[in-house]
Design brief:
The protein is mostly helical and about 110 residues long. Helix content is about 95%, strand content about 0%. The termini are far apart.
Length: about 110
Amino acid sequence: MEIDLAAIVKNLVDREKHFKEEVRKLEEEMENEYKKEIEKLREFKEQRKKLIDEHYRELIENAKLEMGRIESKAKREQAELRKRMEDLESHLDELVSEIVDMLLSEE
């Protein structure tokens, strides 16, 4: 039973080559998976940013609309107050005129 040292070494070298090839394939596969996951993460971040932007854009638009409604209401109320003030001033002028007329007629 003679041990063929050259055959053993060749077998070990072949096994090592095969092992290194399997390791290289696994590393490649892992790198590809890593790249895919990074791309998914990038897409997720972009989608999240778009959703957040859309949400805030919607909130801002709603706030602008509400501010417009409030401003319109304030302008209407201001116009009503001006009208009431004018009416009060007119009424006050009439009362003053009546008082002056009464005082003048008493003289």
